[in-house]
Design brief:
2 copies of one chain form a homodimer. With about 270 residues, chain A is of the alpha/beta class. Chain A has helices at about 1-5, 25-35, 50-55, 70-95, 135-145, 165-175, 210-220, 225-240; strands at about 10-15, 40-45, 60-65, 65-70, 100-105, 110-115, 130-135, 145-150, 155, 160-165, 185-190, 205-210, 245-250, 265. In chain A, strand 9 (about 155) and strand 10 form a beta hairpin. At the A-B interface, helix 4 and strand 5 of A face helix 4 and strand 5 of B.
Chain lengths: ~270, ~270
Amino acid sequence: MADAAAQAPLTLLKIGGEVLDQPELLDAALRAFAALPGPKVLVHGGGKAGTRMAARLGVETELVDGRRITSPEMLEVAVMVYGGLMNKQVVAKLQALGVDAAGFTGADLDLVRAQRRPPGRIDYGLAGDVQAVRAGVLARLLREGVTPVLAPLTHDGQGQLLNTNADTIASEAACALAGAFAVRLVFSFEKAGVLLDVADPQSLIRRLDRAAFETLAAGGQIAGGMLPKLQNAFAALGRGVQAVYICRADAVAQLGSPAFEGTEIRNGAPPA
Amino acid sequence: MADAAAQAPLTLLKIGGEVLDQPELLDAALRAFAALPGPKVLVHGGGKAGTRMAARLGVETELVDGRRITSPEMLEVAVMVYGGLMNKQVVAKLQALGVDAAGFTGADLDLVRAQRRPPGRIDYGLAGDVQAVRAGVLARLLREGVTPVLAPLTHDGQGQLLNTNADTIASEAACALAGAFAVRLVFSFEKAGVLLDVADPQSLIRRLDRAAFETLAAGGQIAGGMLPKLQNAFAALGRGVQAVYICRADAVAQLGSPAFEGTEIRNGAPPA
């Protein structure tokens, strides 16, 4: 870790939410990402393009408890849209911005190997739970000046591609790289960060530690999709990631400066 | 070239034609490819999956002089199907066979930069003519034990993906790598090789040099799609590639052995 601290920090940026459906915000996010110093990794989610493509192809989206079930037909759509169209468009744009980007799924270079989620109460279909990230290969690419762009897809090592949540890929990759780099993990989307009132950008929480999070969660002030995201964030901090940020995608341009608008998450004292 | 000769030859295999539509032949081809010693590169064409997907999405395939015009909608289909589905399925299968494969378009790592074909008598739309292959980056990956899997897509360096013929990508990559490796270039498909009578596998031409080719072409015995493929082959031989093979995809298993079934193409004396 002494070595890691001596280098420029590595930024792992996850772009999700509606950013991928808003061309101007996506372009602003990619420009901000391109301008970041130091090694970096981009992870993108799917946005609504996958759902739209599934509808055009007559592939039904099945949801159980708000979670998408990945049928073989839906996996094909995900591989086409996330692993193909979205990933390659982002790579081509980053190349135009002078970033030596390379797009990967978890199958490429065996970067992210997963296990098909065992069917229990719910059979999630072709959904993969991350087992291993090949951090050494990612680190080699980064040292060579390459910027990996990861699609939310993994494989089982036996020829089967699997659908995996982009937040999970982002935090697993961040934790795996924490042994070789000082890592900051950024979850970006279309909102300003963690808000006490989702309708009011002025209610942005600028700093959050574990104790404050526990208090807010217990009081019901943080709920919904933000809960697993923050649990994810604290888990990453517990596994060596130096700081986690949640912000609007274009706020990445101010990352590390006092002008940064967003939520910075660091481990405070552990909860009593 | 002395250095190149000292190493195991590099095999650049292009899989095309109907192989991608025939799962058993594709699997046999990938197994044969996986078993090849030495550094290797796979280039895949599109097969009919792109045409089928375009039909499902109501995207019209426009042909002029037998050549596909790449509309923006058709490019999206190509990026989804060739750059996404097909590329990642091949990568996942190769990984399962123990090959450290990584799938790329020409945009990834700026591997194959192209220029949009200038509209003349025909406007080919978003079709790219290859300008530069980053052979140094490919060679570095190969030395690291990586097997690149190239989709038939390029980019213009300004953020635009382009559609490029897979045969062209294969021969351009082979020629670019000929400075660092002894390269054999294999065009594989569902037929036995160059046939004097396309309906008769027994009419396979086992060896072809330029003089014989000129004679057969002048006599009309080689025609149709095989003509540009062979012109391509001789052009590659003139640019440093050591040998070109045209064969059935599963015959790759016998490449370099006396049992090999296919057409071996080498430069003979130049035509008078």
